[in-house]
Amino acid sequence: MKMALSEFELREKGIYGVLHIVILLLLLFLVVSISVDTFKGIPFYTQTVFMKVQFAVCVLFLLDFILEWFLAKHKGRYFATHFVFLLVAIPYQSIISWAGWTFSEEITYLLRFIPLVRGGYALAIVVGWLTYNKASGLFVTYLTTLLATVYFSSLAFYVMEHGVNTLVTGYGDALWWAFMDVTTVGSNIIAVTVTGRVLSVLLAALGMMMFPIFTVYVTSLVQRRNQKKQEYYKELQGGDIK
After folding, report:
1. Which of 134, 166, 198, 237 has the greatest count of CB atoms below 10 A from its CB?
2. Nearest to 77 by CA among 87, 65, 85, 69
3. What's the rounded Cα separation, in Å, for the pair 49 and 51?
């Protein structure tokens, strides 16, 4: 991290940058809240603080979307390419609570992860600001996305499979399953619920897409380092000849 946070205000879109930082801080609270409620078995929809914070996050998402749309040169193209971000900015849980609708515990639990999808985009922007090298910024973004997906998948898998799958006796089993599944190696834990099976497929697909990116990144680093060494040796040889 070569750039101090105070330098964000010097950017062309200072308010835009501050908005993303606030979103990330609120999302950090959501991540902690989701984790604590999962481990303690607390129904999050009974926590008024969580619901208020998540509603605030969604409102900020909507403001962020409107701001980006307003600053975009081609507003129609922006709306078409960023329509997904608008969908994840809708406060579904607050709407469901106000309307008095009821869904299964599994669907209700999974809905809480929707705002985190938008947070990944904000994280990618902030990482891009904090790194001068675009390749390094992209690598950090991919790595963070991979680890976050593995962690949240393990939480969801634990909630869905615990008490139903005899092989999932604790969260450690779910975390082991997630890491082994994303590496496409597989584990001895086999999902028995529909949600668990879907997560198994998604994690394996994510692993097949992500790990080649890591290989390409490491290879490019080695090639660049070797190229610099060759240039250095050429300069030394040129100096000796003179």
Report:
1. 198
2. 69
3. 5
Q: What is the pLDDT of residues 134-179, one digit of tens each?
A: 666 667 777 777 888 888 889 889 988 988 899 998 888 999 999 9
The amino acid at 180: M
Cα 85–73–75 angle (5° rounding)? 45
Rounded Cα distance, 143 and 225, in Å = 22
Look at the block and give the residue holding tokens 């938008």.
118
pTM, rounded to two decimals: 0.69
Burial of 207 (0-12, 13-18, 19+ CB in 10 A): buried
Q: Token pair for residue 23?
A: 């979103």
Cα dihedral: 156, 159, 161, 162 (round 10): 150
CA angle 22, 206, 26 (to 5 degrees): 10
Helical segments of the chain, H only: 14-40, 48-71, 75-81, 83-88, 92-99, 105-111, 114-130, 134-161, 171-182, 194-241
Cβ neighbours around 183 below 10 Å, total = 15
Residues 6 or more apart whose Cβ sits within 8 Å of residue 50:
30, 33, 37, 44
Residue whose pair of structure tokens reads 């996050």 in the numeric block: 57
Give the pair of three-digit tokens for residue 34: 């989701």
